[in-house]
Amino acid sequence: MNHTTTSASGALIAGALCLALGPATLSGQESAGRQPTAEDRAGIERLLSSYPQALGSCAAEDYARNFESPDGFYESSFRGRVQGFEKLVALVESEGHCNDGSTVNTREPFDPAALSRLEMTADGATGIVSLGDRGHYQDVYVKTPSGWRFRSRTNISAQARAAGVTARDLAEIRVLAGEGQGRFADIYADMGTGRHFRSSGVVVVEIDGPRVRGRVQLKNDGGRYDDVYVRTGGGWRFESRTYVPATASR
After folding, report:
1. Rounded to an integer, what distance in angstroms lies between the CA atom of residue 56 and that of residue 2?
2. What is the pLDDT of residues 66-107, one digit of tens each?
3. The domain spanning residue 72 has which CATH number?
4. Distances from the Cα of 121 to the Cαs of 25, 124, 143, 158, in angstroms?
5. Is the distance from CB of 247 to CB of 229 less than 8 angstroms?
6. Sign of CA dihedral 137, 143, 145, 148
7. What is the number of domains present in the chain?
8. What is the value of pTM for the model shown?
9. Distance from first CA to last CA of the chain, Å, rounded?
10. Where are the alpha helices (DSSP H) in the chain?
């Protein structure tokens, strides 16, 4: 059964997008902020240094504590949007090097030179962290009583970067697809060492110029949607939405 969805209301998407992104993300990406103080930069650099250390050493709870509680999230094409302490812990615990008998998988330490476009916003800061030819992180930081934390960390792949797809685009696609309405299931998979968390919400399968192919697992019947989103002058819209029943998903 195929469902081709017509353009949704731009006003409704914009309103939902404000809720999905939050004020720090919107202000940080839409307007240039003041320059950070030396203290601000040092605190954010400490956060950025702790991130690969926790991930590489499988310190799952330390990794999750790098994010604002309870709503901070990590986002990537493969993982979807992983939000909240328990899911962030599960994300690290599902990493291959945390399940193959290793205790440490050395990650490249943070290089302060990789941090660019660090700008202060009304309630935090935004920054871009280069991953070289693999893309970059698009970050939103917030200062908490425990120090600087990620409000969001979005991994923009080289493919997404080449197509001009930003964290804001991914957020708009997620709202359009219906993420956050309790309709989509998290995906778990047998990775050889047990059943582990794999992804949450909209998973981006392919980016092809102005088109993004996505996939979402449905919670109620085990089926899924295979979607194609297209960038238009009024924002992202469905080009198609195809329902794949559970029997065909296997």
Report:
1. 43
2. 999 999 999 999 999 999 999 999 999 999 888 876 666 667
3. 3.10.450.50
4. 9, 5, 11, 27
5. no
6. positive
7. 1
8. 0.85
9. 17
10. 10-30, 38-56, 60-64, 85-93, 158-162, 167-177, 246-249
